[in-house]
Amino acid sequence: MCSLGSENESNLIEKSARDGLKDNESYRTLIDVVQKVIQELELRRFLFRRSLEENKGSRFKTDDSISKLYFLNDMKRDITQNLTKHNVSNSVIREVISNIETEEAKKEKVIDDIKQQIAIYQGQATLGKIVNSILHEGRRPLNAMKNDLSFSEAWINKFKENPVEPGH
User: Which of 18, 128, 135, 152 has a CA between 20 and 30 Å from the CA of residue 61?
Assistant: First the structure.
């Protein structure tokens, strides 16, 4: 991974008022690289969001499947019918159904926590993909900048050995 060096190494020179960098070739190259990285991120984000929209149906199917883990209406209906068939009193049936609903509420809380964790993991995965894109797309321009800096250093050293005064 590349990094920017000091002002002497990078030729990125801070303005005297310290409100930015002086506009020179290195600065314009840096701006160009950053703009290209941002454009690539925007494109990838757009494509990623489009793929999410296309897969929205499958995501909701997953949510439905998770909900089925604790949504027990069918079971409550079947139990009520079976207990009624066997002449169990309504008060006992209500008590059984109430116990089921209590358990259902507990599971709903657990499922909500799981859904929140999944959302966090999805956010982290998205952030990881963005960082990976930045590193991938930024590596080539940063390497070019690093190579240009080494050429500049060689030229500066050569100039130090044999300086030429302006106008000669």
Answer: 128
